[in-house]
């Protein structure tokens, strides 16, 4: 029996997505789980898998179309069976994605800007990676004038970055910039359009700070034992596997949430929805903003499993190839800036969650123990909590529980 594939909902606030590329063609055999299409949301380009096996009988929307969530996009069925196409009333119409208007490019030395044109959907199809297409749209670069260096001449991220840096020549001739003395620096005030991802971040963070009453609790943790254990584990692991401090933090936070389920919840008017699963979202820095990838059921996984999953999901996020499951369903978020030598910071709650943990760097500092000064490793973390859901005493107790696992890391393995 034929099955209709619909535009998936990738995130609680997603309303529509752009179908940037069909990976399969009509008439092809396809299995459940095969990548069917690439869809761009406000946050990422996502590979959408087929939910059925059979023959791809009909593609219902064109590449470049903006499609509401739940709208039919394809039909999979038996090769010879009769299929019923959805009527126009079954789904909101898909409309072509609006092309970004050309904007002034940064001035070259001497004040002459290299001309660029609006992105051309016809030039994008099939000859550019999803990430390159998105970068080109955001910078109003005409892909028809970019020389691809990827396989088969495909345009990839490096090609767009080279154009933005002025280090690549488009295939069509462009006027040469006038030379100017090196001492002359452009003092223009360019207007830089926000990417869809940055717009989504701006919208959601403004909503969070305006509607969620945040309060913060900071705690400092002894990290000597954890860092020693991590070093020992990494010394014996093979095949490029490595455990990061953040992998331990994810596990410790998940274990602590078992004791404090109220912080693994969402405020909903006159009630609080306590989540059964503990799904830890981790903010990953990508081109143009942040994307949260989700470690599902983190309390039930080993630190090694967490490390492997996080490495794979972070790589897909940075390459613009996330899977739907990578970014769905977080119940608690961790934002870690430790790799940037940040001592301490506060993070904004990721709605509809009730809390977020901001983690700083593990630093070797002078500490006083039993009246003596010695060197020790310390790390600060700050929990931001929705005051409608919880209060300071519970947040402080959670931070103490987190310390039980971070400061005695073997407790996470028992």
Describe the protein's topology.
Layout: E1 3-6, E2 16-22, E3 29-30, E4 35-40, E5 45-49, E6 54-59, E7 65-68, E8 72-77, E9 95-96, H1 121-124, H2 130-138, H3 157-164, H4 196-211, E10 214-222, H5 224-236, H6 245-259, E11 265-268, E12 271-274, E13 280-286, E14 289-295, H7 303-318, E15 332-336, E16 355-369, E17 372-386, H8 392-407
Parallel strand pairs: 13-15, 15-16
Antiparallel strand pairs: 1-8, 2-4, 2-7, 3-6, 4-5, 6-8, 7-9, 10-17, 11-12, 13-14, 16-17
Helix pairs in contact: 2-3, 6-7, 6-8
Brief write-up:
Helices cover 23% and strands 26% of the residues.
List keywords for this structure.
globular; 23% helix; single chain; 5-stranded antiparallel beta sheet; 8 helices; 6-stranded mixed beta sheet; Chloramphenicol Acetyltransferase; alpha+beta
Question: Helix-strand pattern, N to C?
Answer: EEEEEEEEEHHHHEHHEEEEHEEEH
- The stretches of 5 or more residues where confidence is low (pLDDT under 50) are 88-126, 169-179
Shape assignment: globular
Overall mean pLDDT stands at 83
CATH superfamily of the largest domain: Chloramphenicol acetyltransferase-like domain
Main pleated sheet = 6 strands, mixed
Percentage of β-strand residues: 25-35%
Indicate the CATH class of the largest domain.
Answer: Alpha Beta
Number of domains: 2
């Amino acid at each position: 029996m034929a099955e209709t594939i619909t535009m998936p909902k990738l995130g609680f606030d997603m309303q529509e997505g752009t179908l940037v590329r069909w990976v399969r063609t009509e008439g092809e055999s396809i299995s459940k789980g095969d990548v069917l299409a690439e869809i761009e949301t406000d946050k990422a380009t996502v590979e959408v898998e087929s939910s059925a096996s059979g023959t791809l009988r009909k593609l219902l929307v064109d590449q470049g179309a903006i499609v509401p969530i739940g709208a039919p996009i394809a039909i999979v069925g038996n090769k010879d069976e009769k299929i019923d196409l959805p009527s126009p009333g079954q789904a909101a119409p898909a409309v072509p994605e609006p092309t970004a208007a050309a904007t002034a490019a940064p001035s070259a030395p001497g004040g002459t800007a290299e001309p660029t044109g609006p992105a051309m959907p016809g030039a994008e199809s099939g000859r550019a990676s999803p990430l390159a297409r998105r970068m080109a749209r955001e910078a109003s670069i005409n892909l028809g004038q970019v020389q691809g260096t990827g396989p088969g001449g495909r345009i990839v991220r490096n090609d767009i970055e080279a154009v933005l840096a002025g280090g690549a020549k488009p295939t069509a001739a462009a006027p040469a910039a006038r030379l100017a003395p090196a001492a002359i620096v452009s003092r223009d005030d360019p207007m830089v359009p926000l990417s869809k991802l940055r717009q989504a971040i701006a919208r959601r963070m403004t909503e969070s700070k305006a509607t969620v009453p945040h309060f913060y609790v900071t705690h400092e943790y002894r990290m000597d034992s954890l860092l020693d254990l991590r070093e020992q584990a990494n010394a014996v692991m093979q095949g490029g596997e490595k455990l990061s401090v953040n992998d331990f933090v994810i596990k410790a936070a998940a274990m602590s949430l078992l004791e404090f389920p109220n912080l693994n919840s969402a405020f909903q008017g006159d009630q609080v929805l306590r989540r059964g699963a503990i799904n830890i979202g981790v903010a990953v820095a990508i081109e143009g903003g942040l994307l949260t990838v989700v470690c599902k059921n983190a309390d039930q996984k080993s630190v090694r499993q967490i490390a492997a999953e996080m490495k794979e999901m972070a790589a897909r996020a940075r390459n613009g190839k996330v899977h739907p499951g990578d970014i769905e369903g977080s119940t608690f978020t961790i934002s870690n800036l430790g790799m940037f030598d940040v001592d301490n910071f506060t993070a904004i709650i990721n709605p509809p969650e009730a809390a977020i943990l901001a983690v700083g760097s593990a630093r070797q500092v002078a500490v006083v123990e039993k009246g003596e000064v010695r060197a020790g490793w310390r790390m600060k973390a700050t929990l931001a909590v929705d005051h409608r859901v919880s209060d300071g005493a519970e947040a402080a107790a959670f931070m103490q529980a987190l310390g039980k696992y971070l400061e005695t890391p073997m407790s996470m393995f028992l």
